[in-house]
Amino acid sequence: MANTIIGIFDDQEKSRTAVRQLSQAGIKQGDISIAKNEPDNDGYSVYGGEKSTDYDTSESIGDSISDFFGNLFGGDDDEVKRERELYSESVRRGSTAITVTAEDNMSDKVADILNNNGAVDIDRRAAQYRNSGYTGYDETSKPYTAEQVQTERKNFNEQNEVALPVIEETLNVGKRVVNRGGVRVHTNVTEREVSGQVNLRQENVNVERRNVDREVSADEMKNFKEGEFEVRTKGEEAVVDKTAKVVEEVVIGKDVTEKTETVSGTVKKTDVEVEEINTERSKEARNS
Length: 288
Prior knowledge:
Blueprint: E1 2-9, H1 12-24, E2 32-38, E3 43-48, E4 58-60, H2 66-70, H3 78-92, E5 96-103, H4 104-116, H5 122-131, H6 146-158, H7 218-222, H8 279-287
Antiparallel strand pairs: 1-5, 2-3, 2-5, 3-4
């Protein structure tokens, strides 16, 4: 996978040395771009990269170097935007940006070449910009003149203090209510056969004829005429009636228990390391 590595240089000669060493390490010229502010030409220039195969050929990219870095950095989140603006601001103030496209197996080599040739610490440079009042990149701002570049370099070299923020995260532990489960209650109605006994009374009509030989009485003579009458019977039949009553209760409740749980997390903190520079040894190295 290809990676983009960027080095910011204040020294033009060191930036040219870095480019030569990158080429010697096997980086193609088409994978190296140089963007810088050229006060004498009143604008910005890009050398090399896909625009040219000759590092001495330049092409103007307009009034805003942010267009150049905007093509290198994808995404619009705040961190990417701040990084893109910081590189743009560095070039606006007279620094040279070397951009290298390299595969994973060459990324560390490219970074070493840039750092060994004096690429500035971009975080330290950002702190220096903030100390001088920088709050964000302004595309409408004009590039620094040669005089402004020299003045700022002198101020940076004379600065005795650089404010480096020490940031530390803290772990805040809280709680929230979540669903843990429970029970679902279903009620079903079932049927079963039951039986019972009951005594039933039933009436029946009995018709009997008897032979008799006697005189008709006066009362019987009253009935000596045509007519009809009915004799009805009654009977009992079983009647089923159902009543419902509660025979059992299922009680569903909830118990609340509490427990103490230890929550662990990872927090970050900025560590600032200060390394003493032996100036005497540096002088001997330069004189040797």
